[in-house]
Amino acid sequence: MSLFAWRDLSPSVVLAAVLALLVGYSGPFLIIVHAAQSAGLSASQLGSWVWAISVGSGVAGLWLSLRWKMPVITAWSTPGAALLLAALPGTPYPAAVGAFLASALLITLIGVTGLFDRLMRHFPAALAAAMLGGILFRFVAELAGAAAQNALLVVPMALLFFPGRRFFPRYALPLAIVLGLTIAAGQGLFVPAAASHGASGPLWTTPQWSWSAFGNIALPLTLVALTGQFMPGMAVLNASGYHLPKPARR
Length: 250
Known about the structure:
Blueprint: H1 11-38, H2 43-68, H3 78-87, H4 93-112, H5 115-122, H6 125-149, H7 151-167, H8 169-186, H9 211-239
Helix pairs in contact: 1-3, 1-8, 3-9, 4-9, 6-7, 7-8
């Protein structure tokens, strides 16, 4: 049996894929770049970071979608990226890498042991919403400052996006991004980057263990992933008729 049928490829499917790509990169990517610059990471380290998440999320999403026959995408999250903006500066990069690995291990253990369902039944939804709201509020509040600096760019995007979320929610984000790119190009804001003679690919970093990084990055990142990504993602899948299999009890 073929894994893919061309009859399943429709304009709505292509649009959904493009939207997933835009949402996965447009917001979190810019935050990650800001966090990396604030933490003093080199261009090679940032390039390796972006390379790893791009290849990793692509391969994982492809395999999971084929394995479970449902749309699954793995990528960095906006709340998680916003968390790193506050936690990454002041943390040595090797220690941050160690914290990422610790967070991945915690999430894996919670998933394979079936603890996620039990945790989510007892975790207050209001607390999760408050935590995510606190993380994302600063970016919404900075809209006023950004509008003061470049009203010609920010105000038209906001006027298109916010009403668009009400009247044409599927197209609000891509249209706002296209408008912003068009205005930015007209203002000459795209400055070509200096040519780099180094390899743009994975850069090995030996992880280091740090209790401080574990408490400031690993634990909050795990909690944000569970409450801000997995819960809404699984709710969307269930609402769309996709039901995830329960972990087998041993």
